[in-house]
Amino acid sequence: MDVLLDRALGVLARRPIVALTGAGLSTDSGIPDYRGPGSPRRTPMTYQEFLSGEAAQRRYWARSYIGWARMAHAAPNTGHHALAALERCGALHGLITQNVDGLHGEAGSRAVIDLHGRIADVVCVGCRRRTSRAQLQERFTALNPGFVEAAGTAVEAAPDGDAELAAVDGFRLAWCTECGGVLKPDVVFFGENVPRERVARAYAMVDAAAALLVAGSSLTVMSGLRFVRHAHKAGIPVVIVNRGATRGDPLATVRVDAGCSETLSALAAVASTAA
Length: 275
Hints:
This protein has a six-stranded parallel β-sheet with strand order 3-2-1-7-8-9, sandwiched between helices. It has ten helices and nine strands. The chain folds into two domains: 1-31 and 76-116 and 193-275, Rossmann fold, CATH 3.40.50.1220; 39-73 and 120-187, no CATH class. It has helices spanning 3-12, 47-50, 54-72, 78-88, 103-107, 133-143, 147-151, 196-207, 222-233, 260-274, and strands spanning 17-21, 92-97, 112-114, 117-124, 130-132, 183-187, 211-215, 238-241, 254-256.
């Protein structure tokens, strides 16, 4: 067995574990990430830009309308299933994900905090009414017949369920059926704060852990890095599994530079045997 993986197993044998996952976990499900090795430079729309007016909202929703099909049909990979298996055998007591794809729940994980929300949900900026993304997709299809065909098939998928789309002219927006307000995906945009209650629950989950396992996150943004810093300060060992360097590497007890699917599967296999 790889020496680093063996060391990681030794640390994670101290149950219970809490996991923090990022976009690198979902790349094997066909969902591109922002900062992984070889990923092109991307500039996601900020919350302030989205609220600036209909032009920005049209650009966002037209791209999301095209890209939604890939996100909606993505399936959990072996990394997601490995974490669900770790929860079932009692090794993992909670999971904090920075991803918005909902794949942890589909894989069978139950104790999940969706830190940045879920792309499958839509919220009205005005009245806060929540509806499903699938329902909104049907409304967009009715409002924009032929838009998908006009966009063509050579459209590059981007993270968070959107697509690289140049022409959005003529795309018709849908508004809240309750108050006529602006609709946005129920996710935390760049420049938007994670709800305090959600952050508090995540900190409590880390505090109750004997080890923190980070999987597939570069920890570039403070949204995830703060939990690694919190664990390190509290003396909770941190294991990081990620391809490429992360901002949390200096705080890691063990750092495994490898893919999530194979590494988490190995961890789950050992844990289930020991259970």
